[in-house]
TrEMBL record:
It comes from the Bacteria. Pfam families: FAA_hydrolase. Keywords: Lyase, Metal-binding. InterPro entries: Fumarylacetoacetase-like_C, Fumarylacetoacetase_C_sf. GO terms for biological process: carboxylic acid metabolic process. This is Ureidoglycolate lyase. It comes from Rubritalea profundi. The lineage of its organism: Bacteria, Pseudomonadati, Verrucomicrobiota, Verrucomicrobiia, Verrucomicrobiales. Residues 75-280 form the Fumarylacetoacetase-like C-terminal domain. Signal peptide: none annotated. Belongs to the FAH family. GO terms for molecular function: isomerase activity; lyase activity; metal ion binding.
């Protein structure tokens, strides 16, 4: 299944995208795609509802804003330097363990919303990533069991302000957490629809220029390993998001760097899941 949410920010309704292209409002049966939905076997109930013909559902209006596919998660855990060539362009060696950092959940938005340049920004950058959405409470799981804890996958862009991240001391979170810096969408593709998450192309463009083109098979640490590894340090709750890292081609990696400017158009996607398009706008 492909789960989507639509409507104005903060007022999104749950819906499901059918194989025939119709998006059906599911709010008559389900309040939202949130922690409670996933924790209480909501995916199974939603699948039965779809199999029964989406009784009571209506086609969502054409042109409706598509929001982030799940409600704001309790946390967004990110993996740095998970592709070797990106680790090199970042100025470091291959890590021996996953590099973890967090993004503030206030940065979470739809992949169709504008990206805001934060105040005093100098070096705004982009990073397309495969996103994992957790399906049930995950703590100390084994790698071989990790897949059963995943609800599905989506597409995220891990926007970064490199000056905040690398030149302002402290942890990376400062450069990763500005408003609109965690766009996700357009859908959540359930795990049964994607048997091999390590065989996907992911890409990004800026103003039509292809900047990133990579394969999830090039990850240093696989999807299953990351879920298991992260669960050794924190409990992942249903609906939580893991951003799995980005391939080479970010703005910082060019000589000279090619950072984003107000007015730029950023596109990013993952094969088989979907793509997003965002306009960069000046600071508020």
């Amino acid at each position: 299944m492909r789960l989507v949410r639509y409507g104005e920010p903060g007022y999104e309704e749950p819906a499901v995208l059918l194989d025939d292209g119709r998006a059906i409002d599911a709010s008559s049966e389900f309040r939202d795609f949130d922690e409670g939905f996933f924790a209480c076997a909501g995916l199974e109930s939603l699948q039965r509802w779809v199999d029964d013909g989406c009784t009571g559902g209506t086609v969502i209006p054409k042109g409706a804003r598509i929001g982030a596919p799940v409600a704001r998660p309790s946390k967004i855990v990110c993996v740095g330097k998970n592709y070797l060539e990106h680790a090199k362009e970042f100025g470091g060696e291959q890590p021996s363990e996953p590099v973890l950092f967090m993004k503030a959940t206030s940065a979470y938005v739809s992949g169709a919303d504008d990206v805001h340049v934060p105040r005093n920004s100098e070096k705004l950058d982009y990073e397309v990533e495969l996103a994992i959405v957790i399906g049930r409470t995950t703590s100390y799981v084994r790698e071989e069991d990790a897949r059963s804890y995943i609800a599905g996958y989506s597409v995220m862009c891990d926007y970064s302000e490199r000056a905040f991240q690398k030149e302002r001391s402290g942890q990376w979170v400062k450069g990763k957490s500005a408003d609109t810096f965690a766009p996700m969408g357009p859908c959540l593709l359930t795990i049964d629809e994607l048997p091999d998450p390590q065989a996907l192309r992911l890409w990004s463009k800026v103003n039509g220029d292809l900047r990133q083109s990579g394969w999830t098979g090039d990850m240093l640490f696989s999807v299953d390993y990351l879920v298991s590894y992260i669960s050794q340090f924190m409990t992942l709750l249903p609906g939580d998001v893991i951003a799995t890292g980005t391939p080479a081609g970010v703005g910082m990696g060019f000589d000279p760097p090619r950072f984003l400017q107000a007015g730029d158009l950023v596109e990013f996607g993952v094969e088989g899941i979907g793509s997003n398009m965002q306009r960069v706008i000046g600071c508020k």
